[in-house]
Amino acid sequence: MRLVIDTNILISALLKDSSARRILLLPFFEFYIPEFALEEIEKHKFMICKRSGLTETEFSLILSILLDSISIVPRSRVQKLIEQATNLIGQIDEFDIPFVALALAIPNDGIWSEDKHLLKQRKIKIWKTEGLLKML
């Protein structure tokens, strides 16, 4: 299964040893994230460390392990679909635009997110963690 993951999934996996972390480490999934998401993770690094109790070194190690399971898609590959993604989700939540654009740019089975805003569009399947766990 090929899934685009929303930043909230990666943050959840960084905060604690959760279902999200365990799913991200399963070998039979292919995960994709837009390059933009790494900037968002870096921007929230201090908050993630504080809430999780991780040191910056531990944070970097866990992030590195998780990113071994995730393909980072460059901004250039997603850019041409930003307008289409904006039409689908931009009026609802502009922060979801890069994830929708990525889902439009590559073959995939949907977006894995806990963001309810994404459910308001109908073009791309949205997976919740609970749904993935049931499938396993």
UniProtKB/TrEMBL annotation:
Residues 1-120 form the PIN domain. SMART domains: PINc. Pfam families: PIN_2. SUPFAM superfamilies: PIN domain-like. It comes from the Bacteria. This is PIN domain-containing protein.
